[in-house]
Amino acid sequence: MSEGTNFRNSQIIILGICIAVATIVASVILSQGAFRIMKFTKETITVTGSAQKEIRSDYIVWACAFARRETDLKTAYKKLEEDLKKVKAYLLEKQVNDKEMIISQIMTETIYKKVNGKDTNDIEGYRLAQSIEIRSSDVDKIAAVSRESTELINQNIEFISAAPEYFYTKLDELKVEMLAKATENAKKRAESMAASTGNRIGLMRSAKMGVFQITPITSTDVTDYGSNDTTALDKKVMAVVNVSFAI
Question: pLDDT-derived band of residue 144, with 50, 70 and 90 as boundaries?
């Protein structure tokens, strides 16, 4: 075999060895990289953050109703019409804006005579009822009117005042603010927990919105699905988030 052939064979063997070594080294490097990635992915801390804020309702919905019961339908309608004028006059006197009033249609109920507790086909009379709903941003004024409105009973009106409903109209902006504060609280908790073991937190890996609820200030209720109270003028808002951070 010639020297040239031997030289070429030696080059091929050396090249093969180099390729094999390079493959092994590359595999080790890739394995270490994958291990680091898996370690980075798995080493996380998950915490729950929360934020609370007290708010005051800025919108009110209040409904009132009045009714008449008469043996004659026309008489009932006429008297109910008179009652409507009295109720509207009362509300206007209390500075309730006419544009804030939503007057419902008249509801008519036929009342039948009873024999042994069972209705007969004989008509005993009619009961007509009507309601007015007030929607306003002047919360304090309408709340006061709702408490005082039973004065109308003194005018021989069968008057009923429902409990007002209180709302907060800037809820979307409030949610953004509260979720940001809850996330900040979660970060502080994660930092405290990590520091206690000699570690530091890294980037936020994931975040999930938890309970968002609005309750009366004195309430201690917490629900899994959240709540939106409309009974209290002054409310407490709580937002909860679940956040994971890399360590």
Answer: very high
The one-letter amino acid at 96: V
Strands 59-70 and 101-103: unpaired
DSSP one-letter string for 149-200: GGGGGGGT-EEEEPPPEEE-TTHHHHHHHHHHHHHHHHHHHHHHHHHTTT--
**For residue 37, what pLDDT is reported?**
47
Write a three-state SS string for 131-160. Answer: EEEEEECCHHHHHHHHHHHHHHHHHCCEEE
Q: What is the pLDDT of residue 3?
A: 54
If pLDDT is split at 50, 70 and 90, which confidence band does 202 have? confident
The chain-wide mean pLDDT, for the chain, equals 86
Question: How far apart (Å, rounded) are the C-alpha atoms in residues 73 and 79?
Answer: 10
Comparing CA positions, the residue from 176, 178, 211, 206 lying closest to residue 190 is: 206
Give the model confidence (pLDDT) of 170-185 as tens digits.
999 999 999 999 999 9
The C-alpha atoms of residue 185 and residue 163 are separated, in whole angstroms, by 37
- Of 83, 85, 88, the C-alpha closest to 67 is 83
Residue 210 neighbours by CB distance under 10 Å: 18
On whether the CB atoms of residues 131 and 68 are closer than 8 A, the answer is no
Separation between Cα atoms, residue 87 and residue 56, nearest integer Å? 29
First to last CA, the chain: 64
Residue 53 makes CB contacts below 8 A (sequence gap 6+) with 174, 177, 178, 181, 236, 237
- 149 burial (CB, 10 Å; 0-12 / 13-18 / 19+) is buried
